[in-house]
Amino acid sequence: MKTNKKTVFLLLAFSPAIVFGHGDETHEEKVKTTKSVVQKSVNTTQSALYEEINKSYLKNIKPIFEKKCFDCHADPENTPWYYTLPGIKQMMNYDMREAKEHMDMRKDFPFISHESPLNDLKSIQKIGMEGGMPPLRYILGHWDSRLTDAEKKEIISWSTRSIKLLKSEKKHK
């Protein structure tokens, strides 16, 4: 009987919350036209800056993102037991595909995205300051998925430093 209660809970918790999955933003147009922004040629100065930012990312931020973001923005190492339930699997696959189209974290910084690395950092900074990730329906099934205050502080600090680095490089051009 416990399995039935879990299934009912999950269906009730996840199904009506589809609207909250990614807010009201759509990225289809940007994805089609600018999917390869990061893959464009990068000058030597930018490359060095990206390496510096990535070094800090690997040390301080990636461990946080692995725990809190990689289930959708990368390839999850394990899927929960309810992933095999009809309907839930399709919904989760859709959410993971959508998340990766927005910001794919399977590679290190700079992420594969429909935005520039600078704009990705601004988005990450905004999420650290204002929230918005993970989506409500993910939180309903993963109570510990919200960022802690210490994690938010670390992400905001890293993104702010990184934004300043990239902006300073733009000024020197």
Automatic annotation (TrEMBL):
Signal peptide (UniProt feature, chain positions): 1-21
Segments forming domain Haem-binding: 32-161
Pfam families xref list: Haem_bd (PF14376)
InterPro entries: Cyt_c-like_dom_sf, Haem-bd
Domain of life assignment: Bacteria
GO MF assignments: electron transfer activity; heme binding
UniProt name for this protein: Heme-binding domain-containing protein
Keywords, sorted A to Z: Signal
Taxonomy of the source species: Bacteria, Pseudomonadati, Campylobacterota, Epsilonproteobacteria, Campylobacterales
Ribonucleoprotein in keyword set: no
